[in-house]
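Intended use. Records like the one below are meant for learning the mapping from a protein sequence to its folded structure. Do not use them to infer anything beyond what is encoded.
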Amino acid sequence: MTLVIDDNKCARCGICEPECPNEAIVQTEDAYVIDPALCTNCAEHYGEPLCEAVCPNDGIHKVKESLYKKCLNLFG
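Structure written out for the chain above:
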């Protein structure tokens, strides 16, 4: 599974970025995004995604890899 940040729920508070042990979350000009190449869902040490746990707006969700790849192809 891949994690994505829902732009409609993200308050751009930035609390998720420092929680990521893999530095997979970065701030772009107008949003926070998760790099799927770096994200491990925190499975190696924590058993659950830390960013998802700390998000105050439930704006981080797991999606199937194939769905994520389809979205990338459509929207870049």
